[in-house]
Amino acid sequence: FLVVRHWYKQWEAYVQGGDKDSGTFPGCINNADLFEDQVNWHLRKGLVEGEDYVLLPAAAWHYLVDWYGLEHGQPPIERKVVELPSVQKVEVYPVELLLARHSDMDTTHTAQFSRTDSVDLVLRTAREQFLVSPQEETRLWIKNAEGSFERLCNTRVTVLDAALKTGQVVIMETRNKDGTWPSAQPQAVNTALEEDENFQGQPGICGLTNLGNTCFMNSALQCLSNVPQLTEYFLKNRYLEELNFCNPLGMKGEIAEAYADLVKQAWSGHHRSIVPHVFKTKVGHFASQFLGYQQHDSQELLSFLLDGLHEDLNRVKKKEYVELCDAAGRPDQEVAQEAWQNHKRRNDSVIVDTFHGLFKSTLVCPDCGNVSVTFDPFCYLSVPLPVSHKRVMEVFFVSMDPRRKPEQHRLVVPKKGKISDLCVALAKHTGMSPERMMVADVFSHRFYKIYQLEESLSSILDRDDIFIYEVSGRSAIGENTREDVVLPIYLRERTPARDYNNSYYGLMLFGHPLLVSVPRDRLSWDALYHILLYRLSRYVTRPSSDDEDDGDEKDMEDKDNIPKPGHVAGGSSQDSGPEQAGPSSGVAGGSRAPVDSSPGPSHWPQRARRKHLFTLQTVNSNGTSDRSTFNEDTHAQPYIAIDWEPEMKKRYYDEVEAEGYVKHDCVGYVLKKAPVRLQECIELFTTVETLEKENPWYCPTCKQHQLATKKLDLWMLPETLIIHLKRFSYTKFSREKLDTLVEFPIR
């Protein structure tokens, strides 16, 4: 307490003098000289201890007032001893703050605070001063010297820790009825907002605007918003006293505050929908994987959010080290309770109260039979879906019968099956023997790959165009037998000359390629021409006799043979290795049939131009370069191109018919997968499994790492159970999303 110095000196002289004469009697305490005025009783500026006043401990002051009294109407000058970083000091001059309202920042009210007072006292004082009703929610801002504003988030710190100085303006903001803060509104309030102010709907039924691929976030938020226990916690402001601003694992309370704002807006009943922009920005700030507007996994976002809310609201301010204890044969109940208590010693929040449960994990050593039981906390269950061992594949079946259109089939095959399984499945639909089928991946008018029967189906993706061709049963591609040979056939169209002397033609692939069986003894160009004309007859019309120049058919015959086939050169466009026409193939330069005007002798009569609709040429598996440009390799599989002049193609090739196909009955049936019960997923989650090689367990008895068996059980369930269905199954080639329907109870 402060006492004016001259009164204190007089009292000292009076008690030391021994003679109690009235001359030195100090009379009642009168501190009038220390005050600036007698209305607000503010201390005069610049008072010095020992010259203007003396400091007395509380007990001494109370004695003096009891003995001598205090001047009527004067307040005692009571001051606090404050603990400063290196010294204790009496705070003679408190901090004077200017309190204002957000709605009227120019009108301020002066209030005095000790440096040891909490910021919460500043807030309570402001609420009293501005007559805020108890149910209204408020928060504080400080105005910095440069005019910017800064939130005073943590109201539990002292005025000193918050670095508040005399003369500083502290602004109190009151939350709007619709859950928003006035300061968070854009300056130019659009008319839609004003219209919304009068809207009164059912609290909680409130849309979230998609900010661009943010359905993953919005769906998780809608789920969380409808957990009564959690939403009530925020609506009743219980979170305010539990915000943890100093947790290194948390987000300084910012995620919890941003989520609280969202909940209050959604449950105000004043919005049809809200734009979660501030929340999205906060999430991106703390978890950079969610920055931008890509698609994300809803579960990943939920997991991040629950963890962030838990640490921001963790009631444990200082986490202690907890030693994990082994079960060592004790009863499960006892070990589980100990594990839960240990968990709560470091993790105690509304999220733990609502969503956390306990697993029981049992590991058994395959060698010594040692059993290890532990109990581990969880926040959600990630349960697997029963994966079907079957796979549905769509293919096109191309018959040898030229009148039949290609048929689309939907085949059910083993997921880990081979190409031969695909043929067997198709055989059931068509009645055709699997031995008479060849399977190819068609991409961009060419054979990307021609499959062998033993190859795995896993390399075929769902988006690949798979064609299965009927071939004569007497053939195997490229094998040296005396029967049939299978020729891959491409269709190409000439484009006009590209250079000045017309010696170069561009050739563009078009249409669907074919695999055609040709008897080995009919491997001549002319025979092949007629075989192909027959094979294409569904969509290629033969010229009528008016179109033909009736020449002698024998002129057309070309006695030389097509290059003899060896093995298939892989058939895929990656390995279009050296391939080449055989010797004396009877084609100009071993490359083109002679309709073009390229240099080189022509073995066919000139009138062939009119008679033949197209010319034939050996090409590589890409269907691009001439085989003659390669080194001699008589064993490579010949690919044949059917080359069309544009006007001939226009006249005789029916493009619409060529692209036509029919759907087999099997395509009409939607293969309904039986729905899975949630219980099945949980049973799958709790089945015994053997640990993988990459993740062995150290057995304390054997003193070595073991591939133990592991079983998880649900020991203790939370109030609200979050179940995540693991819809993605990963293989070496792909990530597959399982679209199995899961039927689940609400309780």
Structure explained in plain terms:
- It comes from Mustela putorius furo.
- Its EC number is 3.4.19.12.
- It catalyses: Thiol-dependent hydrolysis of ester, thioester, amide, peptide and isopeptide bonds formed by the C-terminal Gly of ubiquitin (a 76-residue protein attached to proteins as an intracellular targeting signal).
- There is one protein chain.
- The chain has 747 residues and is α+β, with helices and mostly antiparallel strands.
- It folds into 5 domains: 2-90, DUSP-like (2-Layer Sandwich), CATH 3.30.2230; 95-174, Ubiquitin-like (UB roll) (Roll), CATH 3.10.20; 207-313, no CATH class; 332-386 and 674-743, Cathepsin B, Chain A (Alpha-Beta Complex), CATH 3.90.70; 389-497 and 505-541 and 612-626 and 635-672, Ubiquitin-like (UB roll) (Roll), CATH 3.10.20.
- The chain has 19 helices and 33 strands.
- The protein is elongated and about 155 Å long.
What labels would you give this structure?
six-stranded mixed sheet, DUSP-like, elongated, Ubiquitin-like (UB roll), 747 residues
